[in-house]
Amino acid sequence: MKIEIRLRINAADGNVWGEEVITLDKPHDQLEQIGLSLDEAKDLLGRIQEQVVGAQAAAFVSESWCCTDCNVPLRSKGKTVIRFRTPFGDVPVTSPRLHRCACDPAATRTFSPLAGLFREHVAPEMLYLETKWASLVSFGITVDLLKDVLPVGDTLNAETVRNHLHRVAARAEAELGEEQPVFIEGSPRQRAQLPVPDGPIVVGVDGGYVRAREPDREGRQTHFEVMVGKSIAEDKGNRYFGLVQSFDQKPKRRLREILRDQGLQMNQEITFLTDGGDSVRNIAVDMSPCAEHVLDWFHITMRLTVLGQYTKGLAHHDKETASETQRMLKRIKGFLWNGNHHEALPCIDDLECDLDDIETDYPSIKAFRKGMAEFHIYITRNAHTIPNYAERHRYGERISTAFVESTVNTVVGKRFAKRQQMRWSKPGAHLMLQTRTRTLDGTLRPKFEEWYPGLATTKRTSKTEHAIAA
């Protein structure tokens, strides 16, 4: 069976151009030969793309051959070739250079018309595909994936994809406003006049660690902390955010923009759940007058569980003391569960003193004492953020950042730490976090459509044509 595929282009000036694109000779009696093969499809798409881009570039240049003021034809100085990288191949585009008209006051004597069209030599959709997939899997796998399913150029490599991802992230970073210590707006009277807000917003923030590219002075492997969060709005889509605390200069502004995209008003309830760390807690300070800061119950119980394990070890050496210690820990947990830190702190202080007075041969007693002292400091520093967890739980309100723990695993663990053995610089990790969080919460494509409005138009046109066909 002989199959001929032709391309027909109707130009804006009325000219019609057609050409045979590809001829295939395919049998009809073999299952593996039914339909286009992947290689045939990539070859076909590459040929069509080259013809379409060439026709569009020629149409654009044809509008510049005459002076726009006096309509005098412009003389050609020469031509060069622009290589335009698209998802369907690298397309060479002939770019003429023209002499300016005598009536043109511009400083340069010549110009290239296509310079105004090809401001970037990478198609926006190619940039989007590279950024999306490199945010999900390694740069090398991204290259292999794109080369497997699309007729991309042979020169595409991991370094190119990484540079393009950094460029996209840096462009998004440049759109952030200036950092501010306080983001509370308006007076109480002005806030009282605001319309009724949507449902409450819950924001959870936690940290994780990734491998650093540079070792320490002694040549040992080091890590640095990244901060990850998830904002859950009752009536809007969930959003992720991430940053490298020791690198980012605008952490509060970044969170503010996430909340603004979710429609935050100054009279809207918002709850921040954190692990109580200073760096994590400070990012949410003075974000809204209606904000409630809650210490994550999970981190409290996690510390109490560790102390409970030490108590079980102590029982092998001093059963009576261990039993009393266990009773005190249970009492402390009950006070904290009901938000009664005023009663919990004296109990913690008493237990810490009791542990200092214990004479035992338990080998981990020093670690037990240290853990108790650290727990005392932890609760003291975060006492003002300890609510009545029992009451919140009864009313179905969140008391734990368990959803953020999964977010850390999703955002950081699966791309930075677990199976990916890469080492990261702080700028590289920070830029990757920006594109990865947007990819995961579905806001990367809308951002590209904001930068390149034609992408949204193409998407709408395609949907309309499918609806009509159906």
Q: The biggest beta sheet, please?
A: 5 strands, mixed
The parts where pLDDT drops under 50 for at least 5 residues are 464-470
| Tally of strands | 10
CATH domain topology of the largest domain: Nucleotidyltransferase, domain 5
Q: Determine the fraction of residues in helical runs and give it as a percent range.
A: 40-55%
Structural class based on helices, strands and sheet pairing = alpha+beta
Strand content: 15-25%
CATH class of the largest domain: Alpha Beta
Distance between the termini: 30 Å
Based on the coordinates given, report the CATH architecture of the largest domain.
2-Layer Sandwich
* Rg result: 31 Å
| Domains (count) | 4
On the 0 to 100 scale, the average pLDDT is 88
The sequence of SSEs as H and E is EEHEEEHHHHEEEHEHEHHHHHHHHH
Strand order of the largest sheet: 8-7-6-9-10
Form type: elongated
Count of individual helical segments: 16
Which properties best describe this structure?
3-stranded antiparallel β-sheet; alpha+beta; disordered C terminus; 470 residues; 47% helix; 5-stranded mixed β-sheet; Nucleotidyltransferase, domain 5; 10 strands; elongated
Structure description:
A hairpin with a 2-residue loop joins strand 3 (76-86) and strand 4 (89-99). By secondary structure, the chain is α+β, with helices and mostly antiparallel strands. It is 47% helix and 17% strand. It has four domains: 2-120, no CATH class; 125-175 and 447-469, no CATH class; 188-296 and 401-424, 2-Layer Sandwich (Nucleotidyltransferase, domain 5); 299-385. The chain has a five-stranded mixed β-sheet. Strands 3-4-5 form a three-stranded antiparallel β-sheet, with helices on both faces. It has helices at 38-62, 124-136, 139-149, 158-174, 188-192, 251-261, 278-282, 297-315, 319-337, 341-357, 365-381, 389-394, 402-417, 426-441, 444-451, 453-469, and strands at residues 2-10, 16-25, 76-86, 89-99, 110-111, 201-211, 223-233, 239-243, 270-274, 291-295. It has 16 helices and ten strands. The chain is elongated, with a radius of gyration of 31 Å. Helix 2 (124-136) packs across helix 14. It comes from Pelagivirga sediminicola. This is ISKra4 family transposase.
